[in-house]
Amino acid sequence: MNDHPDATDATDETYASSTHDVTAEAAAIRRFWGGLGLPGLIDVHTHFMPERVLRKVWAYFDAQGSLTGGTAWPITYRHQEEERRAVLELFGVRAFTAMLYPHKPGMACWLNGWAAEFAARTPGCLHTATLYPEPGVEEYVREAVEAGARVFKAHVQVGAYDPADELLRPAWGLLAEAGVPVVIHCGSGPAPGKHTGPDPIARVLARHPGLRLIVAHLGMPEYEEFLDLAERHPELRLDTTMAFTDFSEGFMPFPARALPRLAALGDRVLLGSDFPNIPYPYLHQLQALERLDLGADWLRAVCHDNAARLFGL
Ligand SMILES: [Zn+2]
Fold first, then answer.
1. Residue 45 Cα to ligand 1 middle (Å)
2. From ligand 1's centre to the CA of 166, what distance in Å?
3. CATH number of the domain within which 168 lies
4. What distance in Å separates the CA atoms of residue 2 and residue 275, rounded to the nearest whole number?
5. How many angstroms is it from 46 CA to the middle of ligand 1?
6. How far is the CA of 185 from the centre of ligand 1 (A)?
7. Over the stretch 241-280, which tens digit does the pLDDT of each residue have?
C-alpha cells in the first residue's frame, strides 16, 4: 500500500527481478546467526522510502554517477516494497530501519510522515525520521520524537550541508536529550562532499557530547579519524554498512593496523547493510565481518546485542 500518487506508475522494469536465489541465501544467513546463538539480526542501516524517491536513488546507481565513483553498482534486491520486507524477514532480520533523507529543504517533513506510516504498518521496522537544516526543523524533529521515532538518518553528502549548521543546533540538542540515535552518513565515501569528513562532526560533538551519532559506513574512507572520535566520545557509534566487503575493500580498504581499535570498540559497532541498494548479496556483508576474525563475542555484539541494548529490544 502506498498512497502517494507518484507511487502508482512504477513499471515492471523498475523492479526487474534479479536471478539471485534469496531462499538459498536465507538458509546461509540463518546458519550464520543461529551458529552464534543469536535470535536473529538487527540491521540499523536499511533503506525504505517512498517509491518515487527510491526509484530516483536506483536511477542514480544505475547511471554510475559521481556518488559511486563511476563504479558499476547493480542493485541486488530490486523488488517491490512488500517483497523487500519479506526478504528481511526470511533472513531473520528481527529489527531494521527505514533510512530516508532529503536532498533539499521542504522535504524532510513529508518523508517523516511517510516513514511514520511505514513503521506503523511494518513489523520489525524501527520508526525512522530525518532532518535538514531549515527553518522549522526543531518543530518537526520534536513532532517525530513525540510520535515515537526511534532513530534518525542524516546524509551530509547528499544533503550537502554542514552538520554543525546553526539551524540544526536545537534539533541536535533535542535528540541528545531524548537519547534518540542518529545514523549519519558523514564520511567522504564513496565520494566526498563539501562537508563530509570528521571535522564537522567533531564540532557537533563539542556542542552536544551526549548526542548518539552512529557514523555510517564506519566513516569510510576516514576510518581512523572516526575511530579517533569514537574513542573520545563514549556515545559515538559506528555502523558496518558496506565496510570490509570485497566491493569496498577494492577502493576504500579498511587499514589492518586499525583492527585492534575496532575490536576494542566492539560494544559500539552496529550491523548495517544498505539493503536493498547493495551490489552483492546480504550474506557477503556478514561474511566480511566474520573474516575479520575478531571472534564470536564481537560478532554477537555487532550483529545483534549492541543494537538490542541501544533500542531496548
Ligand atoms: Zn545507506
1. 6
2. 25
3. 3.20.20.140
4. 20
5. 7
6. 7
7. 999 999 999 989 999 999 999 999 999 999 999 999 999 9
For ligand 1, the distance from its centroid to the CA atom of residue 44, given in whole angstroms, is 10
- How many Å apart are CA 11 and CA 51, to the nearest integer? 11
Tell me, in angstroms, the distance from the centre of ligand 1 to residue 99's CA: 7
In a domain, 9, yes or no: no
- Residue 276 preceded by cis peptide, ω within 30: yes
Burial label for 107, CB within 10 Å (0-12, 13-18, 19+), is middle
83 Cβ partners below 8 Å, 6+ apart?
A: none
Residue 205: partners with Cβ closer than 8 Å, 6 or more residues away: 211, 213, 229, 233, 236
Residue 13 DSSP label: G
pLDDT at 65: 64
Q: How far is the CA of 190 from the centre of ligand 1 (A)?
A: 11
CA of 278 to the centre of ligand 1 (A): 9
* Domain assignment of residue 184, given as a range: 16-311
Q: Is residue 237 part of a domain?
A: yes
pTM tops 0.90, yes or no: yes
Q: How far apart are CA 212 and CA 182, in angstroms?
A: 6
Cβ-contact 262, 294 below 8 angstroms: yes
Residue 110 is assigned to a structural domain of this protein: yes
| Residue 201 Cα to ligand 1 middle (Å) | 18
Dist CA 91 CA 55 (whole Å): 24
